[in-house]
Specification:
Elements: H1 3-14, H2 20-32, H3 34-51, H4 61-80, H5 88-107, H6 114-129, E1 138-139, H7 143-149, E2 169-178, E3 181-190, E4 193-201, E5 208-215, E6 218-225, E7 228-234, H8 238-251
Antiparallel strand pairs: 1-2, 2-3, 3-4, 4-7, 5-6, 6-7
Length: 252
């Protein structure tokens, strides 16, 4: 993938809208190209600013009342002035009203989707796990030690797979919480990097192919199989994370 192709896709990549194949290609190019890497960092900086609560303004009730009254008054004036030619004054009033509407559109965000909120929670939990003494509740490289540890703590048995031969070392597991419900977090290590594999059951039985997101510098891939939910998050590159997931899927 060259610079022109990357710059076309980089906006969608930053918004987590690309499929995993294109995401991996863009990530590879960004890693090797300083120019495109700079463009990508600018996008991330802009996204970070737009997510900051401080840039959004909640108008006071009195202002809302005045705007509502202005709209009502404007509608009445339109009825009276239907047969008149627009004067410069009425054109200015229309312009002012349009500016108010534009300000409201800019200041009030569209609520984040459920999937976006869930991705943010996943990344938050991953980052929290990297704090001292938060990574694992049961420490073991033996899947037959980690898997039984969850008995009695969850009403399901999570998948625990030994992938040490493939370079993904099982280091343990812990009990975590997503959307207020207990979930299993299986922890693997790839060189100096950790991978959290979150797993739980849901009522939705629709199969979802691998979906990729990049949030705050962490790669997230999730998929479902029946009512089984899998979310993997790490700071390793997408190619390695996709390889990890493929290995997990081979065992399920």
């Amino acid at each position: 993938m060259d610079c022109n192709q990357t710059k076309i896709l980089i906006d969608a990549f930053a918004d987590n809208e690309l499929d995993i194949a294109n995401s991996i290609e863009v990530e590879r190019h960004i890693a090797d190209c300083k120019d495109c890497s700079s463009v990508y960092r600018n996008y991330l900086a802009l996204h970070s600013v737009l997510r900051d609560e401080s840039v959004y303004y909640t108008p006071p009730a009195e202002l809302i009342k005045k705007v509502t009254a202005s709209i009502t008054s404007s509608e009445k004036k339109q009825v009276i002035m239907k047969s008149r030619i627009f004067s410069w004054q009425s054109a200015a009033a229309l312009f002012a009203f349009s500016a108010i509407v534009l300000i409201f559109i800019v200041l009030f965000r569209t609520p984040a989707t459920t999937e976006t909120q869930l991705t943010e929670q996943i990344v938050d939990n991953h980052m929290r796990s990297l704090m001292p003494n938060h990574l694992i509740d049961v420490q073991s490289t033996d899947q037959h030690t980690v898997k039984p540890w969850f008995n009695g703590k969850l009403d399901f048995s999570p998948p625990v797979t030994d992938l040490s031969a493939q370079g993904f070392i099982l280091v343990g597991g812990r009990l975590d919480y997503i959307n207020g419900q207990p979930v299993a977090a299986i922890v693997y290590q790839r060189k100096a990097h950790y991978i959290n594999l979150f797993f739980w059951f849901s009522d939705n039985k629709e199969d979802i192919n691998k979906k990729v997101a990049v949030t705050r510098g962490y790669n997230v891939i999730h998929w479902t199989k029946g009512n089984k939910n899998y979310w993997a998050v790490s700071d390793i590159n997408l190619t390695e994370l996709d390889e990890f997931i493929s290995r997990i899927q081979e065992t399920q």
